[in-house]
């Protein structure tokens, strides 16, 4: 009888361990499939799993926001009231810029959790931008793979876009 109980316990342990391994494998496959579907090779973005770098190889507009750390630092530098007035103005112009870019049917990418932008031109020239070093609340970079990326003035989006993308 003890033998059967011991065998039964071993069997249950083995079965339960296998189920946990299957769950881990299933979860890792889900993450991979999300990454692949979100950043497939046809849109020329090459994501790095668990990386703060976004690699861009094709014509697009990159909209970036500041990190919480930089926002808090900026509030202390200029004061909370001035910060929120500036943030309100910035968001208005950013919305206008976003609408303009959508009307031009250019791919728009938001940085979300990325701190580093790595632009790769057709001639393999690489430009790296560290968003933590940006002083603005956020902004827009335009990229055409035939040129280096350009940070644009969102208050003058149409002229900036037309002069860069021609």
Automatic annotation (TrEMBL):
Taxonomic superkingdom: Bacteria
Descriptive protein name: DUF4252 domain-containing protein
Organism of this sequence: Flavobacterium plantiphilum
